[in-house]
Specification:
The protein is an alpha/beta fold and about 400 residues long. It has helices spanning about 15-30, 55-60, 65-70, 100-105, 110-120, 170-175, 250-255, 260-270, 310-325, 330-360, 365-375, 380, 385, and strands spanning about 10-15, 35, 50, 75, 75-85, 90-95, 110, 130, 135-140, 145-150, 155, 160, 180-190, 205-210, 215-220, 225-235, 275-280, 290-295.
Length: about 400
Amino acid sequence: MHARESGPRIAVVGGGIGGLATAAFLRRAGLTATVYEQAPALAEVGAGLVIAPNAVRLLRRLGVMERVMRSAVPLDWGWEFLRWEDGQVLSVEKLSGVCERLYGERTYTIHRADLLEAVRSAVPREWIRLGARCTAVEANGSGAHLRFADGSRADADVVVGADGVHSVVRGLVADATAPQYSGICAFRAVVPAERAPEFARRRAQTLWLGPGRHFVHYPIDAGQSVNVVAFAPAGDFTEESWSAKGTVEEFLAEFAGWDSRVTDLIAAGGVPGRWALLDRAPLQRWSRGPVTLLGDAAHPMFPFFAQGAAQSLEDAAILARCLAEAPDTPEGALKRYESERIERTTRLQRISHARRDVNHLPDGPEQKSRDRALAEADPLVENGWIYSHDTEEVSIS
């Protein structure tokens, strides 16, 4: 592992946004770590994501907002809900000016790869070991022992499993149960701005709601592209990989009869990605001895509140703080980290899960009641407990 002058030896398994953010916050706290990533190069598949104020303030503390702003799009409008068949506006929330007043930061959209690169810039390159696929973690009296596919090994005082929903590390902490398929699949596409209809190029996060489905779009890449992600019944489709592909015909068939602006945007996007959403019940514990979990390995959630990456950033900030405050007793620090984070992330898992049913109501009395509630709601205020959260103001006991 990477040599250190003092502090615990920390191994971070997984070089995604959560794993790199962990290393970045550990560095900010005066500790060091080694990040083990199985891929031969750091890369983020997928497409866009929303960066809400609770995530933006953490990126600013890492000193990477200048990089983020090279490609991020500041949103003027968000939570813009439209009716599936005709684009009737059910609700829309002004973000520009309001986010700053309420929460001190704006809301942005960005490509995942750009966010990953921004966070990586806060981590020394010598801390990152590529092509290192962790196959096993064994806890012992003096820490933990890691094994890798190439036959190499490493010892650590702390192991952080930031290795996603299929986490290897998770099996050491919780029962090794397989995730369940949710019955939902997602389509995604990135549409060049010059091919996208004008309405989709606005600085807005737009959600079209319909029976059994919903469709989301917003600009990314400094406005040069439009990110499209849509959710529909999975049927027999169970492939979870973000590199899996669908067809334009399949995508169009799922949204047949919808407003032509939706189908025009689908047709402009070319071959879409398609993956099945996995479902896991919230964990009762994240840590065991010198091993803990972070991000999707700890709390995978449906993306319907756009908080997956943000919660990984919050995890990373709190974990680094706990370890820095008690470097000589890392196991206690991990328990404090778990205790501080588990209630908040479990709540987000549950409301994200419930949002599927709300978004996908068939036309009828419940749908009309939902639409009236959307018209009366102020999600930017109602979700204040999400966006106002500040990891440096949390009292950790």
